[in-house]
Write a structure and sequence with these properties.
The chain is mainly alpha-helical. It is about 75% helix and about 0% strand. The longest helix is centred in the middle third of the chain and has 26 residues. It is elongated. The N terminus is likely disordered.
Length: about 220
C-alpha cells in the first residue's frame, strides 16, 4: 500500500486549528491589544513590544501580520470605522421613516459607541491625526465614506431637493465634520456631559439643515 504524503506544514492542525486560523486569531489578538494600548497611552507612546505584551504574543507574530505600528494603527482604525458604520446603519433602519427620527437615531448610535468604546473614540478622533500622509489619506477617505452614506440617505429623505452634486457633497462633508468635532470634544472632556446633551447639540445643527430644506 502506497504511503500517503504528509499534509503541508501550513495545513497541519494545532489544538483543532489550522495554520490560517491560528494566524487569524493572532491578528485579532494584536488588533484588540493595539486598540487598548493606543487608547490608553496614544499611538506615539505605544511600542511594538508593549502591544505584543498586551496581546500575549512575541514580536515575531506581530510582524507576521503588520509591517510596523502604523500599519496596526490603520487596521485598528478601519475595524472601528466598520463597526461604527454598522451601528449607525442598524439604528437608522430601526427608526421610524420620519427624517428627524432617522437622523436622531443615527447620531445617538454614533455617540453611544464613542462612550461605550473610549479607546476606539480616541483612535478615531485623536490618534490618527497628523501621523503620516498614509494615515491622513485613510482619515480623509473615512470622512468621504461617511459623507457618501449621508448623501444616500439624503437622496431618500429629500427626493425632490434641487441641490447640485457639488453642494450636496459639501453639505454632507460639513455635517460629518460637525458630528466628528462635537464627539471629539466630548471624548477629550472625558464624556462628562450627558449623552442626551451632546445629541441635542448635534440635532440643532442637523435640524437647522433640515429646516433650510423645508423638512422640519
Amino acid at each position: 500500500m502506497d504511503k500517503q504524503p504528509s499534509p503541508p506544514q501550513n495545513a497541519r492542525r494545532y489544538r483543532g486549528q489550522g495554520g490560517e486560523e491560528r494566524r487569524a486569531e493572532r491578528r485579532a489578538r494584536l488588533l484588540d491589544a493595539g486598540l487598548r494600548v493606543f487608547g490608553e497611552v496614544g499611538f506615539h507612546s505605544a511600542t511594538v513590544k508593549t502591544i505584543c505584551a498586551e496581546a500575549g504574543l512575541t514580536e515575531r507574530y506581530f510582524y507576521e501580520s503588520f509591517s510596523n505600528s502604523e500599519d496596526l494603527l490603520c487596521a485598528v482604525y478601519e475595524e472601528h470605522m466598520v463597526l461604527q458604520q454598522q451601528r449607525i446603519a442598524e439604528a437608522v433602519l430601526q427608526a421610524s421613516r420620519e427624517p428627524l427620527a432617522m437622523m436622531e437615531a443615527g447620531l445617538r448610535a454614533f455617540l453611544e459607541l464613542a462612550r461605550e468604546n473610549p479607546a476606539g473614540a480616541r483612535v478615531q478622533f485623536l490618534e490618527v491625526l497628523g501621523v503620516s500622509p498614509r494615515v491622513d489619506r485613510l482619515y480623509r477617505q473615512s470622512i468621504e465614506n461617511f459623507a457618501r452614506l449621508m448623501r444616500s440617505w439624503n437622496a431618500q429623505l429629500f427626493p425632490d431637493e434641487a441641490l447640485t452634486v457639488e453642494d450636496e457633497e459639501m453639505l454632507s462633508v460639513g455635517l460629518v465634520g460637525a458630528a466628528v468635532g462635537v464627539a471629539g470634544r466630548w471624548m477629550l472632556a472625558g464624556f462628562a456631559q450627558p449623552l442626551d446633551a451632546m445629541l441635542q447639540t448635534l440635532m440643532v445643527i442637523f435640524r437647522g439643515v433640515m429646516l433650510q430644506r423645508g423638512q422640519a
